[in-house]
Structure formats: C-alpha cells, structure tokens
Queue: 3 jobs
Job 1
Amino acid sequence: MAYEIGPFPLNRFRRMVACAASRILLLILGTACLPYDAEAVRLKDIASFSGVRDNQLVGYGLVVGLSGTGDKKESAFTMRSMVNMLEKQGVRVDMKQMKPKNVAAVMVTTKMPVSSKPGGKLDVTVSSLGDCTSLLGGVLILTPLKGVDGKVYALAQGSLTVGGFSIQGNQAQAQKNISTVAQVPGGAIVERSVPFDFSSQTSILMTLNVPDFSTTNQVMERINKALGGTFAKSVDAGTLTLDIPSDFQGNLVPLLASLENLEVSPDAAAKVVVDEKTGTIILGREVRISRVAVAHGNLHVIVQEGQDVSQPGPFSGGTTVVTPNTNIATREEQRNLNILEGATLQELVDALNSVGASPRDLISILRSMKAAGALHAHLEVI
C-alpha cells in the first residue's frame, strides 16, 4: 500500500525542521555567550608530572670538513683526538706533522625524553671547544652520548646546520650571529632507553611551576571533583600527590590526558620585578599602593673643560701660553607633588605615569615607596 504526502503535511514538516534549526542555533549562541574566565589556564601549563622529564646527554667529538676555520695547533686536545681517531682506523701519523685547521673539537649535547625508545631520533647541539672560528660546512663524526651514570644512550653523527657566519681578513671581519654553535636535526639515534615503566606507578607526584598555597588547593579540589573522590592531596605549597584510581591502574595515559586539560585560575603573591641593567619594570596583577604623595626631580650638573690661548702684545717680548677654562652649569627639574593611589593595576600604572618619570626614575620611586610602606608587594631586583 502506498501513501502520498499532501501539501499540508509537507509544509508542516518544513516548519518543524525550521523550528528545530532555530532552537539549535539559539543553543549554540547561548553557549557562546556564557561567561568565560580569561585567566583560566590548563593544568599542563602550570605543573609537571613525575616520570615525565628529559635526561641530559653529553659527548665529546670531532667536526671535520671545515674550510680552514678549525682549531689551531695550540689546541693540543684536538691534535691528540685526531691521532686517536686515525689510529682506530688503522692509520699511524706523526702528531707534529698534523695541521688541524679543517678539524674542530666539539661538545655534543641533547635532551632525551624518558619515553624515548631505541631507534628514535634526537636533535643535538654541537659547540666548539677550542679556538675554532666557524663550524660552517662541517660534519660531526660518530660521537657516543652518555648520561650522568656514564652509560651510552645515543650515538650522534651528521652534517651541521649553522645559523650564522664569520668572515675574517687581514684588516676586517664580518660576523652574523654565532658561528661556533651548530645544530644537527635528528642527528642522534637512541641506542638505549631509560629503565622506567611509567604506567606501573600507583601514585604520581605533581609539582607546580610557581609554588602557591591557593593554587595548590585549587588544583587539588579541581582534580578530586573531576575524579569523584579524594585522590589528590596537597603536600606543600607546590606539590601534590595523586593516587591512581583502580580503573586506571596500569593505564595512566587516558587519566593524565584528561587531568592535564583541567582549567584552573593560578594565584600568586604581589610582586614587582626590576631589572636595573635594562631599566625594565614588571608589575604583577595584585600589586597595590596606599595613598602617598611623591615628588621626583633630578639635578643635572654640567662641567665643561676648555683651553684659552693668551697671546702677548706686539714687541712685548712675552711668550704665548695656554690657560685652562672651566664652565659649570646646573639645572634642576621642577616637579610637583603628586598624590598616588592604586586599587587596580590600571590605576597604579596611570598614577605612576602621572609623575612623568623615566623607567630608571620609576625604579627609585618604587624603592622609596617600598621603604615608606606604601607599596604592598614584594620588590625583587634582578
């Protein structure tokens, strides 16, 4: 039996589809308009997990193929390394007759993640150890990379990539960036992995990058709420322990993949960081100042030394002499007394800008305000 849809039911169906589409659109717009915490960050950006770390590897090797920019004869260790390398290849040489201008002794460093397995590749950094002027065009000879325990974990070899150049003549020199440090992308092959089973852990230690009691407590509450139980416990201002739920025993990747994307709002103590070398001032969000009056002015003293020539009169029989001349001028800036008070960071910035002082003057002002007890923040000078 066949059924035929008449014009009325078809129009009604179209209206139903249009109504449903409108509701979905309103739902999407409503979700987009929900308040968003702009200060919330992911847990993976403020904390690290135990067992997820890098291991430092280092090795000593030789770079060959340089165009006369290698080590000089004064680098005795380079000469000895060349002799040892050639003797291992079955070539006997006289060290006194060697010219190492195309060879450079280098230190090779890299970071091996704990998850690296044999056969994996690592990027290595090659740094000149002697008086080499440039590593441009060089090739790193097979170099074993060792860990702090003295065991070889990777082997490095390959052509160098240098991000600069150095050209020198008899009377001039041109240089861009640093030419005695180079990279070998994927130049190291892992030969041995770190003996560590990540998934066998029954508890994980979490360490915050910036210790803070409020942030630690917030992270603990956020994790326990997500897991539905008391699994996270705070140890101190920057450390938490997480007991692995039974459902994730031996399978930690899904658990940590969920936890590291939890969003929290980090808190921190009010701090003002001052770099006197560059005149840089960084004010934290929580910095406040009490009502205080500030007047700041500079006294400039200019001393200019010169010489005057005293010429004797005609037929006087005198001699020409040089007499010193000193000009002294002073200029003192007149600054009005300004009342400063800041309840928010913007108000604090506006108040400091109203003084009209340079960054280096602001350093003195902030120090004086701290001494007067008007600056409610930790002042750190680096």
Job 2
Amino acid sequence: MRTVFFRSGHLSRPSRFTRLVQLGRAVALLALACAALPVSTPAYAERLKDLVQIQGVRDNPLIGYGLVVGLDGTGDQTTQTPFTTQTLANMLANLGISINNQAAGSSNQQSSLSNIQLKNVAAVMVTAVLPPFARPGEAIDVTVSSLGNSKSLRGGTLLLTPLKGADGQVYALSQGNVAVGGAGASANGSKVQVNTLNAGRVAGGAIVERAVPTSVSQAGTMQLDLNEMDYDTTQRVVAAVNNAFGGGTATALDGRTIQLHAPADPEQQVAFMAQLQNLDVRPAQAAAKVILNARTGSIVMNQMVTLQSCAVAHGNLSVVINTQPVVSQPGAFSNGQTVVAKQSQIQMKQDNGALKMVTAGANLAEVVKGLNALGATPADLMSILQAMKAAGALRADLEII
C-alpha cells in the first residue's frame, strides 16, 4: 500500500537526498549499458574510386587557334604580330570579303595587310578538355589565352574556332564571350593590375561535334590502375573486390594493375562499376618520403619519416666584398692624367657551428623540432637532409621537385 502525505493541501515532493540517490542509480545503469555495447575501432578506409582509375576512361585535351574581337583598344599591335592580320584576312576571305580586291598571296595584298592597324582584335589559343563519354551536342568550357601582345581580353568575343585533338580531327567548335577575372588601369605611365588580363574562360563555350570512342571492357574484362604503385594496397583491393563479388572477380597483374571479370551487358556493367567504386578499402601506409622544392625552398615530410642516431653541425660562412673607387691625382706639372682605380676589401666571417644530437627513431615532430633548433633556413635544411640521407641516418626517400 502506497502512503501519501499531505502538507498544506499539496503532495509532498521527494527529498533532495532521494533525488540524488535515484540519479546515481540511473547513471550507474547507463554506464553498464554502454559497457555492454561492442567497441568499434575507427575505420580509415577510402572509397575505391579515390584509389584507382578505370583504364580507358580518360580526358582528352583539345586545342585551337582563333581570334577575339570587340576589344576596347587593347588588342594586338599588328606591326609586331603580323599573324593577327593574316588570320583576319583569311577569315574575311572565307566570308567572301577581300582586302583591296587583291588576289590572295599577291605582293599588293601583303603590303596592304602591313598597313592595317587594328586595336580591337587579338590572336588567341583556345584550349579545352574533352571529358570521357562526351557526346555530340554537349557543351564544355574553354580557356582563351592571348598569343600576341594584347593588353587585355576583357569584353572580347571569341569567334568560331575549331578545336582539334592529338590526331588532328576536329572534336568541338568554340565561340562566345570571354570572361576575364582580372582588372587593371593605366594612365600617364602608371599602371595598376590585379591578376592577369590576357586569359579568360568561356563557360559552355564549345559544342562537342565528335565523340571519342571509349573501350572500357574487352572480352568481358576490364582493368583498374592504382594511382600509386603499391603491392600491399593492390592485394587489399583484390581481396575487397573478391569478398564483395565472389572469388576470381579481381586478379592482380602487377603492383598497379588489377584485372576484373565484368558483366558483358553494358547495363549490368554500369551497376557493377557503381557498386565497385563505393567499396571501402584501407590502403597501406605510404613509404617514408621527404619532398624538397628547390625553387621555393619548401620541405614536406610524411609521418613515416624517422632518423637514426646522428650528430649535425651547422654553421654559416659569410663573405662580404666592399669595393670603393679611388682617384689617383698626378703631380703638378707632370703632364699626367687622373686615374680612377677600384679598391676592394674582402671580409670572411664564420659563425660557430652548433652540434645537435638526434636520437634514434625520432618521429616527424622531433625531426622538425631538432632541425629548427639549429636555426637553419629552408635552403640549409635541404643540405642537412641530403647529408643525413648520405650518412644513412635519414630513413626516408628524398625527392627533389
């Protein structure tokens, strides 16, 4: 039987101690329930589409030569770029317009072309990338770059330009208004410019006229190419594919190429490749590597870089050469000439080298901290790392780009 006590006409609330006890029991039950749940280890897998490429599915570069018109006096200087006027004359001839009614190729026509001064026309190179499985009628973006000495392509219009592939065949036709992201102004010899004005893009400016035949499957087989050659990753990809689609579906040909037995029906191939690309594969750890950029002085290491026990001494040698002119005056009434000679003073200064001990098995953080403690610049670090590699203390591959 439950007993309820009344106080001043209201139900009595449980005491604060009772609430704390109930809360403690709830927390204990929640902790036991969480402990009973299975512990899941974090997965660092990547999708297969991020690790491999399908052999035969690739982009194709296109290139063309054309004219941009409608510029505001920022076109090519025709006296220095004669190919601009020649291209314009050929285009006008195809449209039934001849210059001075002279036959093409005559000397009079050449002289008349040299007298033409155009300020709103620029010769350009047009480039584009034809994506895989592109069909006639599809629109692709093109990039327009000035070929002559045009100051700016802003506000210009690209005239009809055929785009050719590596085989010389026309695969697309481009035309449209050029969008330039830069800006600039000049007056009285002063000039201010932001970004480049001699290159721009035409969004959807090319129409595909010819499709590139793409052969993905041959005799019921297709091949996958790993982005980076690694035998361990290749074996893991083969195991993941065979576990998902059955044994024998994937076979490793080498450390980069994997052969697949795919369905012969094109519709089934699409479904097969869609499931295949979404498979999760945990790639192998990358090899220890240090990248040195000799142009910018950048140094990048991955987390696998380690060092053996070694000692590094670092010191700077500076040479200062100060040259001052010295005037030698001849004596009075000696009929001599004044001679100007150069006197140089050379000073050499070498800072005390710092000896730094590096313990074996140091990780990336310890390597960077130890090298920074020497006070070395990026250029000095390149020499230090190369010396460590030559001494056998650096456990990584050096790559200079």
Job 3
Amino acid sequence: MGSSALPEGTYAGRCVFVTGGGTGLGKAIAAEFARLGADLVIASRNATHLTAGRESAEEVGARVLGLQCDIRDADQVRDAFEEATATYGLPDVLINNAAANFPTPAEDMSPNAWRTVVDITLNGTFFCSREFARRHIEAGSPASIINVGASYAWTGGPGFAHSAAAKAGVKNMVETLAVEWGPYGIQVNGLVPGLFPHDDMTADIRGNLDRTNEKDACQPALRVGRLQELGWAATFLASPFARFISGHTLVVDGANWQRRMLTNDPVVTVRDQMGRGPFDPAPRK
C-alpha cells in the first residue's frame, strides 16, 4: 500500500462513515482512513460487501462497524447514523461513495433503470448528507463531507446518461451545501476519480474497459491510477490541513478529463462502442 499521505494517527479518535465502502474505490478510501487511525463505519446494501470492507480495514488494525443500509431510504439512513453514533460517537467525516452505474445507450434505458441510478447516486447522497449535517448542526461540532463524483458531471457522459445527470447533481450539491453549511463548520468537497481499475468493477463496465487497448497509453500521465492515490486525496480533503478548502471538487485522474485532440477520429455511435446490435423499437417498460 505504500506510505500514508498524512502523519500517523491523523484520524485517531475520529469516526469516518463511508457509504459503499465494502468494494472498489470506497474500500480503498476507507482503508487509508483506517491506516491513519480512524474508526470506520461502512454502509452497504450487500452483506458480502460489508464483510469484504470490514476485513480490509481490520487488516490494518482499525475498528470497523458494518451496517446494511439502503441509502435511498431516509429512515434507514437515520437508523444507520443512530447505530454509528451509539458505537463510536457522532461520525466526524462522511464519504458519500455509494452509487449505481452501468453503461447503456439512452434509447435503451428503461424508466426503472433511470430512477434506480438517480435515486441511489443523487437522492442517497443527499439523504446521507442531510442526516449527517443535522446532527452536527445540533451538536455545534465541525465536520467534513466528501462526495465522490465523476468528470462527466462537467462534460456529459455518452452511454451513461443516468449516471452523468446524477453526478452533475452531486457536484452541484458540493457547491450549494458548502455555502449553506459553512457557517456551522461543515466543509463539503467533491472527489472525482479517473481510471482506477479494480477487481470489483461490474462485468459490463469491465467489458467496456477491456475493449480499450493500451490503457496506460490512453492517459496523459501514461498510466492509470493506483487505488491508494484516491485514498490519499480523500484523507487530505477531510483533514485539519484542508479545513479552509470547501465547495471544491478535486479531480484525481492525471489530467485525463482535460485531454483534447487536435484532430478528431470518425464518430462511432455508443451502440457500436458497446458492441450492441441495431436499435429494437419494440415497446419497453
């Protein structure tokens, strides 16, 4: 895992609540907080994911509470924070990492697919942020929120219309809530990962990635990200060293989202990029 980005024990005696912290990027972020002494609360709908996240954090000696929670349900979110607070005290840091995503041409997307992704990614992020902030406002205590975003919140995301729209809302929430809650000592920032391949990628997203040759050469930095680098960025943003940073979204992608070409390749439809056949106009639910 390499070195930590901050002094040992930076988060000793502090509790960090991570949604979707049992797999992939969320697990990597949680592990870096654990290495710096934090007590962890990992929330997920999936019990297997909770086990994986807990084991990862316990490997570095952290105390971990795993909670099954569907963040689309504000009552479940409230109950999760109740249990977290009863166990470790009111969490000091909230990492809104949980999201739903899968590639699909917009014309194929069902209403339920749209609602599910927006409900988890956007509504769930708000419900967790609101519950966390209410408790700190009542307690009069400072706190930090980090929303994990995506660069297509700025650029649009062909093949990911549902997720791109939801992540644009998440980015705007960073800027809005940072101003609203700043007077209470609550900082709100965003963290956008670039390409960080990991074993927990869904099969359809990995399939798209597998169709990309020479992934390192496709990045301006000539390499993909290493998981601990995202954890280093998250632990900095929520640390005492970044208290005056709020309303900012930090992109950790080696400048990939800023890349522009002097000449353009021929346009390839999203359907062709994904290996889909011709559009079927049959009625869809």
